[in-house]
Q: What sequence folds into this?
């Protein structure tokens, strides 16, 4: 059971402060938590202390937060091009409490967003909503865990993603060069084989 003053993560509301533990006259029997969203403490959320339907957990540790940010440079960026597949992935991801999956989706949306911005385009409305939600939710928890402003978290993650994209471009370039070299080698071998065959025919004649 949490106590007054604890900072927790509640469902899709993100980081909340346990403002009180009390009884209310509406809808909820027994004791309930009075939660206030960390970034919007004018609002209150009431949830039973016996809640077993909506996820409630402690904010991740600073060590875990740093690990997650570092992983942004390594984890795959997920963004299915097919709208239906993407909608299914979003639903599956948001119903999971696996932070790594959330980060992969955020990374995919970030890269797609940056690519479209370079073309003076924007994300589709639904994708933008998901991006904003993930950004606020994840940045909010990382910000609290590390006790630094959200914008600094954003800069740290953006830098990791840029490093990832730079590495991916270098790997794709290396693959293209390797393919070109292999093709040139195959063509040279085929040409030498043809010349040897012609020379053999000349000797025989």
A:
């Amino acid at each position: 059971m949490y106590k007054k003053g604890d900072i927790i993560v509640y469902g899709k509301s993100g980081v909340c402060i346990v403002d009180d533990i009390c009884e209310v006259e509406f809808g909820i029997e027994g004791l309930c938590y009075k939660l206030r969203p960390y970034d919007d403490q004018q609002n209150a959320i009431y949830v039973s202390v016996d809640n077993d339907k909506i996820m409630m957990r402690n904010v991740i540790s600073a060590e875990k937060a740093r690990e997650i940010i570092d992983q942004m440079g390594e984890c795959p960026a997920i963004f299915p091009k097919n709208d239906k597949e993407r909608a299914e992935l979003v639903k599956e991801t948001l119903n999971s409490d696996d932070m790594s999956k959330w980060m992969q989706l955020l990374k995919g949306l970030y890269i797609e967003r940056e690519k479209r911005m370079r073309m003076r385009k924007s994300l589709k409305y639904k994708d933008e909503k998901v991006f904003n939600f993930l950004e606020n939710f994840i940045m909010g928890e990382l910000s609290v865990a590390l006790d630094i402003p959200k914008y600094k978290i954003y800069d740290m993650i953006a830098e990791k993603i840029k490093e990832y994209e730079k590495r991916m471009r270098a790997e794709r370039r290396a693959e293209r060069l390797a393919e070109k070299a292999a093709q040139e080698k195959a063509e040279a071998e085929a040409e030498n084989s043809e010349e040897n065959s012609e020379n053999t025919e000349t000797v025989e004649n």
